[in-house]
């Protein structure tokens, strides 16, 4: 039985907290709870309304940026992964046409 609880989207990484899947309304989640993907606080989540079956967000901003870089011929991106760019690094990892090259600092 579907309850049609509200969904909330992380404004940092687009993770969807779906009350139906979690079996818990977002308002009942502890204030100290953080996004399981990027660690953003509960306050970074915005309401997406009621769950509508299998509808979900298929892409995020990071994936669109990577698509544009690939369309311009970029083959490599250099950097150091961190909390603020994990969606970007993930999008590179999932795209076969561009590589992420880890740089080090000493």
TrEMBL record:
Record's keyword annotation contains Protease: no
Any one GO CC term of the record: acetolactate synthase complex
One Pfam family here: TPP_enzyme_N
Start and end residues of each Rubredoxin-like domain: 5-48
Signal sequence, renumbered to the chain: none
Family statement: Belongs to the TPP enzyme family.
Matches recorded under PANTHER family: ACETOLACTATE SYNTHASE CATALYTIC SUBUNIT, MITOCHONDRIAL (PTHR18968:SF13), THIAMINE PYROPHOSPHATE ENZYMES (PTHR18968)
Name by which UniProt lists this protein: Rubredoxin-like domain-containing protein
Species of the source: marine sediment metagenome
